[in-house]
Amino acid sequence: MTTNLQQTITLHNGVTMPYIGLGVFKVEDGPEVVQAVKAALKIGYRSIDTAAIYGNEASVGQGIREGLAENGLTRDQIFVTSKVWNADLGYESTLAAYEASLAKLDLDYLDLYLIHWPVKGKYVEAWRALETLYQAGRVKAIGVSNFQIHHLEDVIHTGTIKPMVNQVELHPLLTQTDVHDFCKVHGIQLEAWSPLMQGQLLDNPVLSVIAAKYGKSIAQVILRWDIQRGIVTIPKSTKEHRILENSSIFDFELTNEDMAAIDGMNQNLRVGPDPDNFDF
């Protein structure tokens, strides 16, 4: 049983990654994201997930620096992720994008760097750049985001290093079971973005019954479902009380029956783009 907010999983290269982190998708650069990052670090989060396209890396970096100082933490105690955007995919452009993200974050390295989307004809070269960064010791771990099985097969077959993480849209209406099974076979850690389906599940009747049984919120039940499946999860919030609520999932465990009931909600329904049919 996953028992605390600092509990980690070990990626296939030996790097440890927290089971739960703070996502900052669509959080505007400036005080809002600074305060969200600082609140998360104060509460006990040790993982922060951003991306170049979010446009908030500079403020995320500020929040990290201030949060570390205020909580007596050091850089090596937190796990920071960013992602290369579609327009920068390619070998040299991906290398340059990594340096640009580091500069905005004002960090010496990232713990995890991801290809944000599998843009056809571009992601294999971008993966070669990530391998170069990793082999040079510039980043602790490398991975992908929104990759389906055939995209993963491409980088596994053409590259020399398997992705350590695949971050995908994943929630009770999009359980991604086939992708999860493939990742488990290949030692790739699955990570859920939009685990709460952008709030669309927070009045779901099936989840309401399960939440009442445990005296928990629907959000807490979903996040607990994630980690009991062995999936890293990064709920987004800018409100300190929600950031705290999302972290309070380590004092209960869903039964096998409740896990199966949530698994059975799958409709292959996305709130984000389809990786195979995304107008890049």
Task: Write up what this structure looks like.
The protein has 280 residues and is of the alpha/beta class. The relative contact order is 0.14. The strands form two sheets. An eight-stranded parallel β-sheet has the order 3-4-5-6-7-8-9-10. Helix 1 (31-43) packs parallel to helix 2 (57-71) and helix 7 (205-214) crosses helix 8 (218-228). The protein contains ten helices and ten strands. The longest helix has 15 residues, at 57-71. Strand 3 (22-23), helix 1 (31-43) and strand 4 form a beta-alpha-beta unit. The chain has a single domain, classed as NADP-dependent oxidoreductase domain (TIM Barrel, Alpha-Beta Barrel), CATH 3.20.20.100. It is 40% helix and 13% strand.
* CATH level-1 class: Alpha Beta
**Helical content class:** 40-55%
Query: Shape from CA axes?
Result: globular
Query: How far is the first residue's CA from the last residue's CA?
Result: 40 Å
Which segments are poorly predicted (pLDDT under 50) over 5 or more consecutive residues?
A: none
- How big is the Rg? 18 Å
Q: Can you say what the CATH homologous superfamily is?
A: NADP-dependent oxidoreductase domain
CATH architecture name = Alpha-Beta Barrel
Beta content comes to 5-15%
Q: Which structural class best describes the helix and strand composition?
A: alpha/beta
* Number of structural units classed as domains: 1
CATH fold label? TIM Barrel
Strand order of the largest sheet: 3-4-5-6-7-8-9-10
Q: Number of DSSP strands?
A: 10
Keywords: NADP, Oxidoreductase
Domain NADP-dependent oxidoreductase: 20-266
Protein name: Diketogulonate reductase-like aldo/keto reductase
Family: Belongs to the aldo/keto reductase family.
